[in-house]
Amino acid sequence: MQLVILILSVLHGSLAASALVSTGPADSRLDIEKTVLIDSEVSLYPDLAFEDVHLQDIASRRKCRVFPGDPDWPSSASWNQLKALVGDNLVMPDPIGKVCYTGREFDANACATVEQQWSNSTLHADHPSSVMSPLYQGLTCLPFDGPNRTCTLGGYPVFVINAQNARDVQAAVNFARNKNIRLVIKNTGHDFSGKSSGSGSLSIRTHQLKGILFFSQLEKDGYRGPAFRIGSGVQAFELYAAARDQHVVVIGGEGVTVGWGGGYITGGGHSPLSSIHGMAADHVLSFEVVTADGRLVTADSTQNADLFWALRGGGGSTFGVLVSITVKAFPDLPIVTVSSFTFTSSPRDISKYPADTSNNDFWAVIRSYFENFALLADQGMYSYFNIFATAIPGQQLFSMAPFFAPNKTVEEVNSLLKPMFDTASALNVTLIPNTTAYNGFYDAWLAGFPQERIGTWAGQPASRLFPRDNWLNSTLFNATFDVIRTKVAANDSGLIAFNIAPTLAAGGNPNNAVNPAWRKTVMHAISTIAWDQGLRNFSQIRALQHDLTSVRMKPWRDISPGAGSYLNEADINEPNFQQSFWGSHYPRLYKIKQNVDPVGVFFAETAVGSEDWTTGVTRLERLCPL
Ligand SMILES: Cc1cc2nc3c(=O)[nH]c(=O)nc-3n(C[C@H](O)[C@H](O)[C@H](O)COP(=O)(O)OP(=O)(O)OC[C@H]3O[C@@H](n4cnc5c(N)ncnc54)[C@H](O)[C@@H]3O)c2cc1C
Ligand SMILES: *[C@@H]1O[C@H](CO)[C@@H](O)[C@H](O)[C@H]1NC(C)=O
Ligand SMILES: *[C@@H]1O[C@H](CO)[C@@H](O)[C@H](O)[C@H]1NC(C)=O
Ligand SMILES: *[C@@H]1O[C@H](CO)[C@@H](O)[C@H](O)[C@H]1NC(C)=O
Ligand SMILES: *[C@@H]1O[C@H](CO)[C@@H](O)[C@H](O)[C@H]1NC(C)=O
Ligand SMILES: *[C@@H]1O[C@H](CO)[C@@H](O)[C@H](O)[C@H]1NC(C)=O
Ligand SMILES: *[C@@H]1O[C@H](CO)[C@@H](O)[C@H](O)[C@H]1NC(C)=O
Ligand SMILES: *[C@@H]1O[C@H](CO)[C@@H](O)[C@H](O)[C@H]1NC(C)=O
Ligand SMILES: *[C@@H]1O[C@H](CO)[C@@H](O)[C@H](O)[C@H]1NC(C)=O
Ligand SMILES: *[C@@H]1O[C@H](CO)[C@@H](O)[C@H](O)[C@H]1NC(C)=O
């Protein structure tokens, strides 16, 4: 989903199809997993040694992480031990905007590219430390602020390991743990809460952990069918191309360049196929993961079963570093129909309400769509839509972008959307759908979800998983609809939402850590706040963030008590985030965290166990236990 309200402008990049796929017997491993760290390699280097985390003295080891400039920050001799092991994969990257600042690195051409490509996710995914929500790095070194201000490192990592294999990951985990350095993990950098970076840290970059293996018949845990083994650096577009070539589908997100095997899969992962197949994490058969002790282990139904449970929905950057994931695939769908349309308030609305945003006709059309959310989701539908104010005073715009209909023909889609279309025509609201059927998931996904613009620094999202119950009772439905409508009418930044129902039944009744609120959801709604792009005063920014959390989002929470929020598209300041992101699963997740990572090698804001740590009001200070 895109945070900025730039819905109608999309990037038109060319996507190279994955040429990484190979096939093999069920016990085949990816190249990235074949190179592992062995004890004899580190026997002479105490800084790189493995350590049994269960034997650690937790009280003395759970302490503030060292920061550059501290006496305990590793010496260059120490960094050189790491360098000896991982070679040139260890780098000290400048912030991506540094080329725009006066100084030795200034480069006008490179700067022009960074500025021009800023909203292109590939720019940031290809950079060792850049992330797509730079607010949480302290807005440091934005290219647009050059050349006369100072470019500081801010919340970006000091060192990055561009991991090429499990061994590089293991070396990083051992080094960070032994030297008491903050460790972060960056895959693509899509995270909306800045969880893939952190001040004073060593970052493991997983983006290059590519590789895809296809198994036409994998047998595991009672499953027998097609499956993939996927490197954690593989992105959605690469995986989808590989699946298309094998005439199957994998449950993945809508976002083209989002990583499949990092924050997405560990966060649960919603998908255009979720109303049929549940969450992406529901179909994982096993993980290869580097744990806090530096070992590469398998987590599946029989080995490290608690970890296996937690990694499917418990969130990234918490329990270990994923290296690969083995996941079920499903037969491709013979037909997938995609429908896109927009409509604005009718002329009658605008003449009736020139000064406000009541737009009753417009909302009547939306209501006839909303009323059918439970029914549409039960038919396997997924839709992605936005509502926001236009530049014309009093006018609002609805954009269906798109209505995604797996296994449905154009005629079937027209019949599913008939109540909405009929209401529009009765009220003279002009609505001209573009509805096209495709042979298979890939082409429909490609047409329906162009690469989104990212890179907002002047705003942030918040989300709510609205339960089906709010649709079943007509009093409650009316109140829910009013709450949504009021928020958009207040013209605060509109609504970005999904009609989606990843029920337990759709997911095959898995037992995993996915937020139980997802199982009841029929609408995943995102609200954003946006402020002046020139604002750099953090006490003002924090006041705006507080307004989003405590004022603007409150009616959404109040109308859905006990429901939740999607941790991957959430408010970084979500109140009671443990309940919101994980509901009744939280106590077990917290216990598993204490068991697999007792001293807190892994930390990210709002991750499981993060309440025991602080990075200060600025979120840029050293990481310390509370
Ligand atoms: C344009 C856009 C579209 C999106 N579309 C969808 C969608 O359709 N469905 C959906 O569910 N979500 C979607 N999201 C949200 C997305 O799931 C999150 O942004 C997610 O965190 C991205 O994961 P990443 O690994 O690519 O990103 P990163 O920012 O690199 O990482 C995210 C988090 O995971 C951790 N992490 C990364 N790799 C690993 C690893 N190998 N092991 C352990 N931890 C790791 C990081 O430390 C960080 O905490 C979208 C986001 C954007 C910006
Ligand atoms: C995004 O960046 C990639 C990599 O540089 C490039 O191939 C692609 O064309 C860019 N997309 C746009 C719309 O500029
Ligand atoms: C930066 O400083 C130079 C030299 O003082 C000045 O000419 C230029 O206008 C300044 N640029 C900006 C954007 O302030
Ligand atoms: C609503 O907000 C948009 C974007 O900020 C602005 O362009 C528009 O003028 C506003 N409309 C009203 C009626 O306030
Ligand atoms: C697709 O539709 C057909 C017939 O309508 C049905 O038999 C099949 O189970 C559906 N497939 C999925 C994945 O829902
Ligand atoms: C819709 O438009 C037609 C023709 O312009 C007009 O006759 C009719 O009264 C309008 N209906 C409403 C509800 O405004
Ligand atoms: C309809 O949508 C498809 C993509 O789904 C696009 O290629 C086509 O140009 C669109 N047609 C119109 C008339 O907008
Ligand atoms: C809900 O709202 C609709 C449309 O405004 C109205 O007809 C209906 O009576 C309301 N239902 C209840 C229970 O208030
Ligand atoms: C419907 O919801 C309203 C408002 O939450 C509640 O007061 C009422 O008891 C509910 N009715 C039923 C039948 O559940
Ligand atoms: C930032 O904003 C606060 C609150 O409005 C104000 O008191 C403070 O002076 C501002 N700081 C700077 C550096 O402008």
UniProtKB/TrEMBL annotation:
Molecular-function GO terms, alphabetical: FAD binding; oxidoreductase activity
Signal sequence annotation: 1-16
Database matches in InterPro entries: BBE, FAD-bd_PCMH, FAD-bd_PCMH-like_sf, FAD-bd_PCMH_sub2, FAD-linked_Oxidoreductases_BP, Oxid_FAD_bind_N
Domain FAD-binding PCMH-type: 153-332
Keywords: Oxidoreductase, Signal
Domain of life: Eukaryota
Gene3D superfamilies per record: 3.30.465.10
SUPFAM superfamilies xrefs: FAD-binding/transporter-associated domain-like
UniProt similarity note: Belongs to the oxygen-dependent FAD-linked oxidoreductase family.
Protein name: FAD-binding PCMH-type domain-containing protein
